[in-house]
Amino acid sequence: MRKLTYFIGITIDGFIAAPDGDFDFLMAHVTEDYVPHLVAEYADTLPTPGRAALGVTDAPNTRFDTVVMGRATYDPGLAVGVTSPYAHLRQIVLSRSLTTSPDPAVEVTAEDPVALVRRLKQEDGLGIWLCGGADLAGQLLPEIDELIVKQYPVVAGSGIPLFRAGFSPRTFRLTDSQAFEGGNLVLTYAKAE
């Protein structure tokens, strides 16, 4: 069975974006020692334009072959004319307001997120990447098998949290941690059984 991985960047205080959804302030903390690691280990999660800029356009997918995201995560690319942000992956946007896809390579659905992920998990293939955001992650929390948290050395004070959901504690166990000279951490957690 395929697993669902929430691979996401956060601040030290647990925010994935500013209150208005902007996350550019996190990118200021992507350091030279950190980029090669992301390219080597997580090239599947690089947007298509980023893959081209880093010379990994033809790199085979090793972790993920499907990306699931909410409308708010998909919209920033649309705003700059990127209709297929992850062309190397099967792209699924969950939205109740976007009824047709602006790109034939992007599936748009109003399907229940949990039902969708359960169906995807039954299919053959590599992993499923939950790209964001907080509302979708909150809905899918019972289905998340793995968290890969890219923690940036910045405190935001407020913003969009890692999860937006009701109180429902879930236990994960730390399976890997990597620290980088610039202060970035990559923390990997597996759902506790």
TrEMBL record:
Gene3D superfamilies: Dihydrofolate Reductase, subunit A
A Pfam family assignment: RibD_C
Transmembrane segments: none
Chain ranges of the Bacterial bifunctional deaminase-reductase C-terminal domain: 2-184
Name the UniProt record assigns to this protein: Dihydrofolate reductase
